[in-house]
């Protein structure tokens, strides 16, 4: 078969050529999950995965902080999952099956949302492989409602469903319902509210198990740095605080999976999609160093 004679740009994360994006040789797999059927304020997170992948083509492959070429790790961009808009629980199972498939091949898995309900299936799939898993859940909201707007499997219940199966530590929370505050007290959920008190972040890291799943809702960032989210909340984390936390976790624990959710690209400037792509890139880099 003749080779196409004109140079093209691959439509995958970092616009990688086949030798750096093939599943067989990749160390990491990114799974786009374009869902927002459980969003409660501003929709549009379904467009987040495509916007992140498109923006990633502008990133430099070399990570100045870590001194590694992230592309050389091998990153495979999986086909986007088809949304199941009729039943959020069925969508959870769909995500779980996809992550399990790639985890069984010993790949670092990263889910690109979509609304934060995608975290449930992804984290539970990692728990199946790593029984001592703990989850670091970074979000402006607690997401600990037992049920919200008629479903127990939406973004408002994601941390609650995960906490029923494994330890969850919350960072960045600055708004929550009374129901959630009562559950935190009753269940002993570890929370680092934002802005943090002295030693708060360190205590959270110290309480994590040996294998960690990292779940990031982009609204954990302050709206001045990340406006393109469904539920923006003032008083949030700065970029340096977020990546600083992730670096510390990777230095002290093994990061085995992650998700980055809730980018609603039409709700903010194009720079927000680039920031989200950079965060995915940093998580892959940090996880790679944590696994070495």
What strand line-up does the widest sheet have? 4-1-5-10-9-6-7-8
Pattern of helices and strands: HEHEEEHEHEHEHEHEHEH
- Proportion of strand residues: 15-25%
The span between the termini is 40 Å
Output the structural class: alpha/beta
Question: Could you say which overall geometry the principal axes of the C-alpha atoms support?
Answer: globular
Helix content: 25-40%
Q: Average pLDDT across residues?
A: 94
Largest sheet: 8 strands, parallel
Q: Radius of gyration from the CA trace?
A: 18 Å
**Overall number of strands:** 10
Low-confidence stretches: none
What is the number of helices? 9
Characterise this structure.
The chain has helices spanning 18-21, 48-56, 88-103, 118-129, 158-163, 178-187, 200-206, 239-252, 270-291, and strands spanning 28-33, 62-63, 68-69, 75-77, 108-113, 133-138, 168-173, 190-193, 211-217, 254-261. It has 292 residues and is α/β, with parallel strands linked by helices. Strands 4-1-5-10-9-6-7-8 form an eight-stranded parallel sheet, sandwiched between helices. Helix 6 links the parallel strand 7 (168-173) and strand 8. Helix 3 (88-103) runs parallel beside helix 4 and helix 8 runs parallel beside helix 9 (270-291). The protein is globular and about 65 Å long.
Q: Topology, please?
A:
Elements: H1 18-21, E1 28-33, H2 48-56, E2 62-63, E3 68-69, E4 75-77, H3 88-103, E5 108-113, H4 118-129, E6 133-138, H5 158-163, E7 168-173, H6 178-187, E8 190-193, H7 200-206, E9 211-217, H8 239-252, E10 254-261, H9 270-291
Parallel strand pairs: 1-4, 1-5, 5-10, 6-7, 6-9, 7-8, 9-10
Antiparallel strand pairs: 2-3
Helix pairs in contact: 2-9, 3-4, 8-9
